[in-house]
UniProtKB/TrEMBL annotation:
Domain R3H: 440-506
InterPro entries, A to Z: AAA+_ATPase, P-loop_NTPase, PTPase_dom, R3H_dom, R3H_dom_sf, Spore_III_AA_AAA+_ATPase
Keyword set, alphabetical order: ATP-binding, Nucleotide-binding
The keyword Nucleotide-binding appears for this protein: yes
Taxonomic path: Bacteria, Pseudomonadati, Myxococcota, Polyangia, Nannocystales
Name of the protein this chain belongs to: AAA family ATPase
Amino acid sequence: MTSTTDHELGLLIGVLPAELQSAVHALPPAQLLEVVMDLGRTPEARLEGRAERLAGTPVSRADIDAVLRGLSPVGEDNRTGIEGTLHRISVIRNRRGDVVGLTLRVGRAVVGAIELLRDLVETGQNVLLLGRPGVGKTTKLREIARVLADDLGRRVVVVDTSNEIGGDGDVPHSGIGAARRMQVPRPDRQHAVMIEAVENHMPEVIIVDEIGTAAEAAAARTIAERGVQLIGTAHGNTLENLILNPTLSDLVGGVHTVTLGDEEARRRRSAKTVTERRGAPTFDVVIEMVGRDEIVVHHDAGAAVDRLLAGEAVRGERRQPGRALASAVPAAAPEAPAAPATRARVGHPATWEGPVRIYLHAISRDLLVRALRDVAADARIVNNPEHADMIFALRARADDQKIRRLAEDGRPVHTVKRNSGSELRRALQAAFPTVPGIDDELVREAIVELEQAIERAVRENITVALRAQPPPLRKVQHRFAARHHLIEVYSEGNEPFRHLVVRPAEGDDFDEDEAVAP
Protein backbone atom coordinates (compact mmCIF):
# COMPACT_ATOMS: atom_id res chain seq x y z
CA MET A 1 0.00 0.00 0.00
CA THR A 2 1.16 3.53 -0.70
CA SER A 3 1.83 6.07 2.02
CA THR A 4 -1.26 8.04 0.88
CA THR A 5 -3.47 4.98 1.27
CA ASP A 6 -1.94 4.20 4.67
CA HIS A 7 -2.57 7.77 5.79
CA GLU A 8 -6.21 7.71 4.64
CA LEU A 9 -6.84 4.35 6.30
CA GLY A 10 -5.31 5.78 9.47
CA LEU A 11 -7.85 8.62 9.39
CA LEU A 12 -10.70 6.09 9.25
CA ILE A 13 -9.28 4.01 12.09
CA GLY A 14 -8.74 7.21 14.08
CA VAL A 15 -12.49 7.88 14.43
CA LEU A 16 -13.09 4.50 16.08
CA PRO A 17 -13.20 4.05 19.86
CA ALA A 18 -9.71 3.53 21.32
CA GLU A 19 -10.28 -0.15 22.19
CA LEU A 20 -11.21 -0.92 18.56
CA GLN A 21 -8.29 0.93 16.95
CA SER A 22 -5.63 -1.53 18.11
CA ALA A 23 -7.77 -4.48 16.95
CA VAL A 24 -8.17 -3.00 13.47
CA HIS A 25 -4.46 -2.11 13.24
CA ALA A 26 -3.69 -5.80 13.78
CA LEU A 27 -5.61 -6.80 10.65
CA PRO A 28 -4.06 -6.97 7.15
CA PRO A 29 -4.87 -3.46 5.81
CA ALA A 30 -5.07 -4.49 2.14
CA GLN A 31 -7.87 -6.97 2.94
CA LEU A 32 -9.99 -4.69 5.14
CA LEU A 33 -13.35 -3.85 3.51
CA GLU A 34 -15.43 -2.31 6.28
CA VAL A 35 -16.06 -2.01 10.01
CA VAL A 36 -19.59 -2.61 11.34
CA MET A 37 -20.87 -1.19 14.63
CA ASP A 38 -24.47 -1.97 15.70
CA LEU A 39 -25.91 -0.85 19.02
CA GLY A 40 -25.96 -3.73 21.54
CA ARG A 41 -23.88 -6.06 19.35
CA THR A 42 -20.18 -6.80 19.27
CA PRO A 43 -18.33 -4.81 16.55
CA GLU A 44 -16.74 -6.66 13.65
CA ALA A 45 -14.42 -6.05 10.73
CA ARG A 46 -15.24 -7.51 7.35
CA LEU A 47 -12.36 -8.65 5.20
CA GLU A 48 -12.17 -10.44 1.88
CA GLY A 49 -13.93 -13.77 2.48
CA ARG A 50 -14.27 -13.53 6.24
CA ALA A 51 -15.28 -11.43 9.27
CA GLU A 52 -13.32 -10.75 12.50
CA ARG A 53 -14.80 -9.81 15.89
CA LEU A 54 -13.06 -6.69 17.18
CA ALA A 55 -14.14 -6.70 20.84
CA GLY A 56 -15.91 -8.86 23.38
CA THR A 57 -18.23 -6.11 24.64
CA PRO A 58 -21.27 -4.78 22.76
CA VAL A 59 -21.30 -1.38 21.10
CA SER A 60 -22.78 1.34 23.32
CA ARG A 61 -24.55 4.54 22.33
CA ALA A 62 -21.55 6.47 23.60
CA ASP A 63 -19.34 4.55 21.13
CA ILE A 64 -21.62 5.48 18.22
CA ASP A 65 -21.81 9.13 19.29
CA ALA A 66 -18.03 9.30 19.60
CA VAL A 67 -17.60 8.06 16.03
CA LEU A 68 -20.21 10.51 14.67
CA ARG A 69 -18.38 13.44 16.28
CA GLY A 70 -15.31 12.64 14.15
CA LEU A 71 -17.25 12.65 10.86
CA SER A 72 -18.83 15.21 8.55
CA PRO A 73 -22.57 15.80 9.13
CA VAL A 74 -24.75 12.94 7.93
CA GLY A 75 -26.73 13.77 4.78
CA GLU A 76 -30.33 13.00 3.82
CA ASP A 77 -29.11 9.78 2.19
CA ASN A 78 -27.82 8.61 5.62
CA ARG A 79 -24.22 8.74 4.41
CA THR A 80 -21.21 10.78 5.37
CA GLY A 81 -17.42 10.64 5.08
CA ILE A 82 -14.07 11.94 6.21
CA GLU A 83 -12.84 15.01 4.36
CA GLY A 84 -9.99 14.31 1.95
CA THR A 85 -10.62 10.56 1.87
CA LEU A 86 -12.71 8.10 -0.13
CA HIS A 87 -14.18 6.30 2.88
CA ARG A 88 -17.96 6.04 3.07
CA ILE A 89 -19.79 5.84 6.37
CA SER A 90 -23.46 4.84 6.33
CA VAL A 91 -25.82 5.02 9.30
CA ILE A 92 -28.84 2.97 10.39
CA ARG A 93 -31.57 4.85 12.26
CA ASN A 94 -34.42 3.74 14.49
CA ARG A 95 -38.01 4.95 14.08
CA ARG A 96 -37.25 8.12 16.03
CA GLY A 97 -34.34 8.98 13.74
CA ASP A 98 -31.57 8.11 16.21
CA VAL A 99 -28.46 6.40 14.82
CA VAL A 100 -28.25 2.80 16.03
CA GLY A 101 -25.76 1.35 13.53
CA LEU A 102 -22.69 2.33 11.51
CA THR A 103 -21.00 0.82 8.45
CA LEU A 104 -17.54 2.29 7.90
CA ARG A 105 -16.48 1.23 4.41
CA VAL A 106 -12.88 1.61 3.31
CA GLY A 107 -12.43 3.57 0.08
CA ARG A 108 -9.30 3.27 -2.03
CA ALA A 109 -8.04 4.71 -5.32
CA VAL A 110 -6.47 1.80 -7.22
CA VAL A 111 -4.25 2.78 -10.15
CA GLY A 112 -4.54 0.19 -12.95
CA ALA A 113 -7.94 -1.06 -11.77
CA ILE A 114 -9.42 -0.80 -15.28
CA GLU A 115 -6.82 -2.64 -17.37
CA LEU A 116 -9.43 -5.30 -18.28
CA LEU A 117 -11.79 -2.72 -19.73
CA ARG A 118 -9.58 0.24 -20.63
CA ASP A 119 -9.84 -0.47 -24.38
CA LEU A 120 -13.64 -0.20 -24.11
CA VAL A 121 -13.83 3.20 -22.38
CA GLU A 122 -11.18 4.73 -24.68
CA THR A 123 -13.35 4.18 -27.78
CA GLY A 124 -15.87 6.86 -26.85
CA GLN A 125 -18.69 4.32 -26.48
CA ASN A 126 -21.19 4.50 -23.64
CA VAL A 127 -20.31 1.85 -21.05
CA LEU A 128 -22.51 0.47 -18.26
CA LEU A 129 -21.06 -1.52 -15.32
CA LEU A 130 -23.22 -4.06 -13.49
CA GLY A 131 -22.33 -6.01 -10.37
CA ARG A 132 -23.21 -6.81 -6.79
CA PRO A 133 -22.34 -4.36 -3.97
CA GLY A 134 -18.68 -4.46 -2.96
CA VAL A 135 -17.39 -5.84 -6.25
CA GLY A 136 -15.49 -2.65 -7.08
CA LYS A 137 -17.77 -0.70 -9.46
CA THR A 138 -17.10 2.66 -7.84
CA THR A 139 -13.35 2.01 -7.68
CA LYS A 140 -13.37 1.39 -11.42
CA LEU A 141 -15.43 4.52 -12.10
CA ARG A 142 -12.88 6.56 -10.15
CA GLU A 143 -9.97 5.14 -12.17
CA ILE A 144 -11.88 5.60 -15.45
CA ALA A 145 -12.31 9.29 -14.58
CA ARG A 146 -8.57 9.65 -13.93
CA VAL A 147 -7.50 7.81 -17.09
CA LEU A 148 -9.86 9.70 -19.41
CA ALA A 149 -8.98 13.08 -17.89
CA ASP A 150 -5.22 12.68 -17.32
CA ASP A 151 -4.05 10.12 -19.88
CA LEU A 152 -6.40 11.00 -22.76
CA GLY A 153 -6.95 14.68 -22.02
CA ARG A 154 -10.74 14.60 -22.22
CA ARG A 155 -13.13 16.95 -20.45
CA VAL A 156 -14.60 14.71 -17.74
CA VAL A 157 -17.32 15.60 -15.24
CA VAL A 158 -18.11 13.24 -12.38
CA VAL A 159 -21.68 13.48 -11.06
CA ASP A 160 -21.01 12.48 -7.46
CA THR A 161 -23.87 11.40 -5.22
CA SER A 162 -22.89 11.05 -1.55
CA ASN A 163 -19.29 12.00 -2.49
CA GLU A 164 -18.52 8.34 -3.06
CA ILE A 165 -16.45 8.77 -6.25
CA GLY A 166 -14.54 11.95 -5.44
CA GLY A 167 -14.42 11.72 -1.66
CA ASP A 168 -15.80 13.91 1.10
CA GLY A 169 -15.20 17.65 1.21
CA ASP A 170 -15.19 20.47 -1.33
CA VAL A 171 -11.90 19.48 -2.98
CA PRO A 172 -12.14 16.24 -5.03
CA HIS A 173 -9.80 13.40 -4.14
CA SER A 174 -6.70 13.02 -6.31
CA GLY A 175 -7.99 9.58 -7.32
CA ILE A 176 -10.14 11.16 -10.07
CA GLY A 177 -7.18 13.08 -11.51
CA ALA A 178 -8.06 16.26 -13.43
CA ALA A 179 -11.73 15.28 -13.78
CA ARG A 180 -14.17 17.86 -12.43
CA ARG A 181 -16.71 16.87 -9.80
CA MET A 182 -20.31 18.04 -9.39
CA GLN A 183 -21.78 17.15 -6.03
CA VAL A 184 -25.42 16.10 -5.74
CA PRO A 185 -27.20 17.78 -2.80
CA ARG A 186 -29.83 15.03 -2.46
CA PRO A 187 -30.08 11.59 -4.08
CA ASP A 188 -33.39 12.49 -5.73
CA ARG A 189 -31.60 15.36 -7.55
CA GLN A 190 -29.03 13.17 -9.31
CA HIS A 191 -30.91 13.23 -12.65
CA ALA A 192 -31.12 17.04 -12.59
CA VAL A 193 -27.40 17.40 -11.88
CA MET A 194 -26.64 15.02 -14.77
CA ILE A 195 -28.50 17.30 -17.19
CA GLU A 196 -27.00 20.41 -15.61
CA ALA A 197 -23.51 19.02 -16.16
CA VAL A 198 -24.15 18.70 -19.91
CA GLU A 199 -25.86 22.07 -20.31
CA ASN A 200 -23.45 24.18 -18.24
CA HIS A 201 -19.98 22.66 -18.41
CA MET A 202 -19.46 21.27 -21.94
CA PRO A 203 -18.10 17.84 -20.93
CA GLU A 204 -16.89 15.19 -23.34
CA VAL A 205 -17.47 12.45 -20.75
CA ILE A 206 -19.93 12.17 -17.86
CA ILE A 207 -19.41 9.58 -15.14
CA VAL A 208 -22.27 8.69 -12.80
CA ASP A 209 -22.68 6.02 -10.13
CA GLU A 210 -25.78 3.98 -9.28
CA ILE A 211 -28.38 4.84 -11.91
CA GLY A 212 -31.47 3.58 -10.13
CA THR A 213 -34.61 5.55 -11.05
CA ALA A 214 -36.65 6.17 -14.17
CA ALA A 215 -35.69 9.87 -14.07
CA GLU A 216 -31.98 8.98 -14.00
CA ALA A 217 -32.45 6.49 -16.85
CA ALA A 218 -34.18 9.21 -18.90
CA ALA A 219 -31.37 11.68 -18.10
CA ALA A 220 -28.81 9.08 -19.21
CA ARG A 221 -30.57 8.73 -22.58
CA THR A 222 -30.67 12.50 -23.00
CA ILE A 223 -26.93 12.73 -22.34
CA ALA A 224 -26.13 9.93 -24.79
CA GLU A 225 -28.23 11.55 -27.53
CA ARG A 226 -26.31 14.81 -27.11
CA GLY A 227 -23.09 13.10 -28.14
CA VAL A 228 -21.49 12.99 -24.68
CA GLN A 229 -19.82 9.74 -23.67
CA LEU A 230 -21.54 8.25 -20.63
CA ILE A 231 -19.91 5.85 -18.17
CA GLY A 232 -22.11 4.60 -15.35
CA THR A 233 -23.17 1.83 -13.02
CA ALA A 234 -26.63 0.43 -12.35
CA HIS A 235 -28.30 -1.86 -9.88
CA GLY A 236 -28.24 -5.48 -11.05
CA ASN A 237 -25.74 -8.31 -11.38
CA THR A 238 -26.30 -9.32 -15.00
CA LEU A 239 -27.74 -8.05 -18.26
CA GLU A 240 -30.73 -10.35 -17.76
CA ASN A 241 -31.44 -8.73 -14.36
CA LEU A 242 -31.43 -5.33 -16.05
CA ILE A 243 -33.90 -6.42 -18.74
CA LEU A 244 -36.29 -7.68 -16.06
CA ASN A 245 -36.14 -4.37 -14.16
CA PRO A 246 -38.97 -2.24 -15.64
CA THR A 247 -37.42 0.95 -14.27
CA LEU A 248 -33.96 0.49 -15.78
CA SER A 249 -34.56 -1.68 -18.86
CA ASP A 250 -34.59 1.49 -20.97
CA LEU A 251 -30.81 1.68 -20.44
CA VAL A 252 -30.51 -1.25 -22.85
CA GLY A 253 -33.36 -0.35 -25.18
CA GLY A 254 -36.43 -1.18 -23.12
CA VAL A 255 -38.82 -4.08 -23.57
CA HIS A 256 -42.38 -4.23 -24.90
CA THR A 257 -44.88 -6.85 -26.02
CA VAL A 258 -45.78 -7.07 -29.71
CA THR A 259 -48.66 -8.95 -31.33
CA LEU A 260 -47.64 -10.46 -34.67
CA GLY A 261 -49.82 -11.16 -37.65
CA ASP A 262 -50.49 -14.76 -38.61
CA GLU A 263 -48.03 -14.71 -41.51
CA GLU A 264 -45.23 -13.14 -39.48
CA ALA A 265 -45.79 -15.57 -36.60
CA ARG A 266 -45.53 -18.48 -39.03
CA ARG A 267 -42.38 -17.04 -40.58
CA ARG A 268 -40.75 -16.68 -37.16
CA ARG A 269 -42.19 -20.00 -35.95
CA SER A 270 -43.20 -18.28 -32.74
CA ALA A 271 -46.28 -17.36 -30.75
CA LYS A 272 -48.35 -14.40 -31.93
CA THR A 273 -47.42 -12.40 -28.82
CA VAL A 274 -43.68 -11.87 -28.39
CA THR A 275 -41.42 -9.66 -26.29
CA GLU A 276 -39.05 -7.40 -28.23
CA ARG A 277 -36.59 -4.58 -27.62
CA ARG A 278 -38.36 -1.22 -27.88
CA GLY A 279 -35.51 0.98 -29.14
CA ALA A 280 -31.77 1.57 -29.33
CA PRO A 281 -29.86 1.10 -26.05
CA THR A 282 -28.56 4.10 -24.16
CA PHE A 283 -25.35 2.16 -23.43
CA ASP A 284 -23.42 0.57 -26.29
CA VAL A 285 -21.44 -1.81 -24.07
CA VAL A 286 -22.56 -3.61 -20.90
CA ILE A 287 -19.96 -5.07 -18.53
CA GLU A 288 -20.94 -7.61 -15.87
CA MET A 289 -18.48 -7.52 -12.98
CA VAL A 290 -18.20 -11.09 -11.77
CA GLY A 291 -15.40 -10.21 -9.37
CA ARG A 292 -12.70 -7.62 -8.85
CA ASP A 293 -10.50 -9.38 -11.42
CA GLU A 294 -13.10 -10.93 -13.71
CA ILE A 295 -15.60 -9.31 -16.06
CA VAL A 296 -17.99 -10.38 -18.83
CA VAL A 297 -18.30 -7.94 -21.73
CA HIS A 298 -21.33 -7.59 -24.00
CA HIS A 299 -19.88 -5.54 -26.85
CA ASP A 300 -23.25 -4.93 -28.56
CA ALA A 301 -25.86 -4.39 -25.88
CA GLY A 302 -28.74 -4.25 -28.37
CA ALA A 303 -27.82 -7.55 -30.03
CA ALA A 304 -27.33 -9.22 -26.65
CA VAL A 305 -30.77 -8.08 -25.47
CA ASP A 306 -32.36 -9.33 -28.70
CA ARG A 307 -30.83 -12.75 -28.19
CA LEU A 308 -31.96 -12.92 -24.57
CA LEU A 309 -35.52 -11.98 -25.52
CA ALA A 310 -35.44 -14.65 -28.23
CA GLY A 311 -34.56 -17.24 -25.59
CA GLU A 312 -30.98 -17.73 -26.77
CA ALA A 313 -27.95 -18.03 -24.50
CA VAL A 314 -25.78 -14.94 -24.18
CA ARG A 315 -22.46 -15.61 -22.51
CA GLY A 316 -20.45 -12.54 -23.43
CA GLU A 317 -16.68 -12.14 -23.60
CA ARG A 318 -15.06 -13.24 -20.34
CA ARG A 319 -11.90 -11.39 -19.36
CA GLN A 320 -9.43 -12.15 -16.59
CA PRO A 321 -5.85 -10.96 -15.98
CA GLY A 322 -3.38 -13.00 -18.00
CA ARG A 323 -6.09 -14.91 -19.86
CA ALA A 324 -6.18 -14.71 -23.66
CA LEU A 325 -9.29 -12.87 -24.81
CA ALA A 326 -9.52 -14.86 -28.04
CA SER A 327 -10.93 -17.84 -26.13
CA ALA A 328 -13.90 -15.83 -24.93
CA VAL A 329 -17.36 -16.33 -26.41
CA PRO A 330 -18.78 -13.24 -28.17
CA ALA A 331 -22.16 -11.95 -27.07
CA ALA A 332 -23.49 -11.47 -30.57
CA ALA A 333 -22.94 -12.60 -34.11
CA PRO A 334 -20.29 -10.71 -36.11
CA GLU A 335 -21.54 -7.43 -37.50
CA ALA A 336 -19.75 -7.69 -40.84
CA PRO A 337 -21.26 -9.98 -43.47
CA ALA A 338 -18.00 -11.90 -43.76
CA ALA A 339 -14.65 -11.68 -42.01
CA PRO A 340 -14.07 -8.33 -40.27
CA ALA A 341 -12.64 -5.66 -42.51
CA THR A 342 -8.95 -5.13 -41.87
CA ARG A 343 -8.56 -2.43 -44.52
CA ALA A 344 -10.83 0.39 -45.56
CA ARG A 345 -12.69 -0.07 -48.84
CA VAL A 346 -11.38 2.29 -51.49
CA GLY A 347 -13.33 4.58 -53.77
CA HIS A 348 -16.75 6.08 -53.26
CA PRO A 349 -19.60 4.36 -51.34
CA ALA A 350 -21.68 4.35 -54.52
CA THR A 351 -19.14 1.90 -55.97
CA TRP A 352 -19.09 -0.52 -53.01
CA GLU A 353 -20.89 -3.84 -52.90
CA GLY A 354 -23.22 -4.46 -49.97
CA PRO A 355 -24.21 -2.05 -47.17
CA VAL A 356 -21.70 0.53 -45.98
CA ARG A 357 -20.58 -0.08 -42.39
CA ILE A 358 -20.58 3.08 -40.25
CA TYR A 359 -18.91 3.58 -36.87
CA LEU A 360 -20.24 6.40 -34.68
CA HIS A 361 -17.99 8.50 -32.46
CA ALA A 362 -19.93 10.74 -30.05
CA ILE A 363 -22.93 10.63 -32.41
CA SER A 364 -26.46 9.68 -31.32
CA ARG A 365 -27.27 6.22 -32.69
CA ASP A 366 -31.02 6.91 -32.68
CA LEU A 367 -30.62 10.12 -34.68
CA LEU A 368 -28.41 8.49 -37.28
CA VAL A 369 -30.78 5.53 -37.66
CA ARG A 370 -33.61 7.96 -38.43
CA ALA A 371 -31.40 9.98 -40.79
CA LEU A 372 -30.37 6.80 -42.66
CA ARG A 373 -34.03 5.98 -43.10
CA ASP A 374 -34.80 9.50 -44.36
CA VAL A 375 -32.07 9.49 -47.05
CA ALA A 376 -32.57 5.79 -47.90
CA ALA A 377 -28.84 5.07 -47.61
CA ASP A 378 -27.73 1.44 -47.79
CA ALA A 379 -25.76 1.38 -44.54
CA ARG A 380 -25.55 -0.32 -41.17
CA ILE A 381 -24.05 0.83 -37.86
CA VAL A 382 -21.26 -1.26 -36.35
CA ASN A 383 -19.79 -1.07 -32.85
CA ASN A 384 -16.21 -1.99 -33.72
CA PRO A 385 -14.33 0.77 -35.57
CA GLU A 386 -12.02 -1.81 -37.14
CA HIS A 387 -15.04 -3.24 -38.98
CA ALA A 388 -16.18 0.13 -40.34
CA ASP A 389 -15.95 1.53 -43.86
CA MET A 390 -16.48 5.13 -42.75
CA ILE A 391 -16.65 7.12 -39.54
CA PHE A 392 -19.22 9.69 -38.45
CA ALA A 393 -17.91 11.84 -35.59
CA LEU A 394 -18.83 14.93 -33.66
CA ARG A 395 -16.54 17.69 -34.92
CA ALA A 396 -15.32 18.47 -31.39
CA ARG A 397 -14.20 14.85 -31.01
CA ALA A 398 -12.80 14.26 -34.50
CA ASP A 399 -9.24 14.87 -33.28
CA ASP A 400 -9.31 11.92 -30.87
CA GLN A 401 -6.35 9.60 -31.33
CA LYS A 402 -8.44 6.61 -32.44
CA ILE A 403 -10.26 8.66 -35.10
CA ARG A 404 -6.98 10.06 -36.44
CA ARG A 405 -5.60 6.53 -36.74
CA LEU A 406 -8.68 5.29 -38.61
CA ALA A 407 -8.46 8.26 -40.98
CA GLU A 408 -4.80 7.46 -41.64
CA ASP A 409 -5.85 3.90 -42.51
CA GLY A 410 -8.00 5.32 -45.31
CA ARG A 411 -11.44 5.33 -43.72
CA PRO A 412 -13.42 8.48 -44.63
CA VAL A 413 -14.32 10.58 -41.58
CA HIS A 414 -17.49 12.70 -41.82
CA THR A 415 -18.03 15.26 -39.08
CA VAL A 416 -21.05 17.18 -37.84
CA LYS A 417 -21.00 20.26 -35.65
CA ARG A 418 -23.73 18.97 -33.34
CA ASN A 419 -26.08 16.05 -32.88
CA SER A 420 -29.18 16.99 -34.87
CA GLY A 421 -31.27 15.21 -37.47
CA SER A 422 -30.79 17.94 -40.09
CA GLU A 423 -26.99 17.96 -39.75
CA LEU A 424 -26.78 14.18 -39.94
CA ARG A 425 -29.01 14.11 -43.02
CA ARG A 426 -26.77 16.65 -44.76
CA ALA A 427 -23.67 14.63 -43.87
CA LEU A 428 -25.27 11.44 -45.17
CA GLN A 429 -26.34 13.12 -48.40
CA ALA A 430 -22.74 14.22 -48.93
CA ALA A 431 -21.45 10.72 -48.19
CA PHE A 432 -24.11 8.86 -50.18
CA PRO A 433 -24.94 10.89 -53.28
CA THR A 434 -28.34 10.01 -54.66
CA VAL A 435 -29.92 11.65 -57.67
CA PRO A 436 -33.71 12.00 -57.64
CA GLY A 437 -35.25 10.48 -60.75
CA ILE A 438 -32.04 8.68 -61.82
CA ASP A 439 -31.43 5.00 -61.19
CA ASP A 440 -28.77 4.27 -58.54
CA GLU A 441 -26.97 1.98 -61.00
CA LEU A 442 -26.39 4.95 -63.34
CA VAL A 443 -24.94 6.93 -60.41
CA ARG A 444 -22.70 4.00 -59.64
CA GLU A 445 -21.48 3.78 -63.24
CA ALA A 446 -20.75 7.52 -63.36
CA ILE A 447 -18.65 7.30 -60.18
CA VAL A 448 -16.76 4.23 -61.43
CA GLU A 449 -15.99 5.97 -64.72
CA LEU A 450 -14.68 9.02 -62.84
CA GLU A 451 -12.51 6.86 -60.55
CA GLN A 452 -10.95 5.15 -63.55
CA ALA A 453 -10.35 8.50 -65.28
CA ILE A 454 -8.66 9.95 -62.18
CA GLU A 455 -6.43 6.91 -61.81
CA ARG A 456 -5.38 7.09 -65.48
CA ALA A 457 -4.82 10.88 -65.44
CA VAL A 458 -2.52 10.64 -62.43
CA ARG A 459 -0.69 7.50 -63.60
CA GLU A 460 -0.09 8.64 -67.19
CA ASN A 461 -0.06 12.41 -66.56
CA ILE A 462 -2.65 13.01 -69.28
CA THR A 463 -6.05 14.70 -69.68
CA VAL A 464 -9.02 12.32 -69.79
CA ALA A 465 -12.50 13.21 -71.07
CA LEU A 466 -15.54 11.40 -69.64
CA ARG A 467 -18.82 10.54 -71.30
CA ALA A 468 -21.53 13.19 -71.49
CA GLN A 469 -23.83 13.15 -68.45
CA PRO A 470 -26.93 15.12 -67.41
CA PRO A 471 -26.28 18.00 -64.94
CA PRO A 472 -27.35 16.05 -61.79
CA LEU A 473 -24.83 13.28 -62.49
CA ARG A 474 -22.08 15.80 -63.27
CA LYS A 475 -22.71 17.39 -59.86
CA VAL A 476 -22.22 13.99 -58.20
CA GLN A 477 -19.00 13.50 -60.14
CA HIS A 478 -17.76 16.97 -59.14
CA ARG A 479 -18.52 16.23 -55.49
CA PHE A 480 -16.48 13.05 -55.57
CA ALA A 481 -13.64 14.59 -57.61
CA ALA A 482 -13.30 17.46 -55.09
CA ARG A 483 -11.82 14.96 -52.59
CA HIS A 484 -8.81 14.33 -54.86
CA HIS A 485 -6.09 16.96 -54.58
CA LEU A 486 -3.82 15.61 -57.36
CA ILE A 487 -6.28 16.35 -60.18
CA GLU A 488 -8.46 19.13 -61.56
CA VAL A 489 -11.92 18.58 -62.99
CA TYR A 490 -13.97 20.91 -65.19
CA SER A 491 -16.92 20.65 -67.56
CA GLU A 492 -16.84 21.45 -71.26
CA GLY A 493 -19.19 21.20 -74.24
CA ASN A 494 -22.83 22.13 -74.67
CA GLU A 495 -25.91 20.23 -73.55
CA PRO A 496 -26.70 17.44 -74.13
CA PHE A 497 -23.04 16.65 -74.84
CA ARG A 498 -21.53 18.48 -71.86
CA HIS A 499 -19.08 16.27 -69.96
CA LEU A 500 -16.31 16.31 -67.36
CA VAL A 501 -12.61 16.48 -68.13
CA VAL A 502 -9.97 15.25 -65.67
CA ARG A 503 -6.36 16.40 -65.77
CA PRO A 504 -3.37 16.48 -63.38
CA ALA A 505 -3.42 19.54 -61.13
CA GLU A 506 -2.00 22.59 -62.94
CA GLY A 507 -4.66 25.28 -63.24
CA ASP A 508 -8.06 26.29 -61.99
CA ASP A 509 -10.39 25.96 -64.98
CA PHE A 510 -13.20 23.86 -63.60
CA ASP A 511 -16.78 25.08 -63.74
CA GLU A 512 -17.50 26.68 -60.38
CA ASP A 513 -21.28 26.61 -60.80
CA GLU A 514 -21.27 22.83 -61.05
CA ALA A 515 -18.53 21.95 -58.53
CA VAL A 516 -19.91 20.87 -55.16
CA ALA A 517 -17.74 21.08 -52.05
CA PRO A 518 -17.28 17.78 -50.19
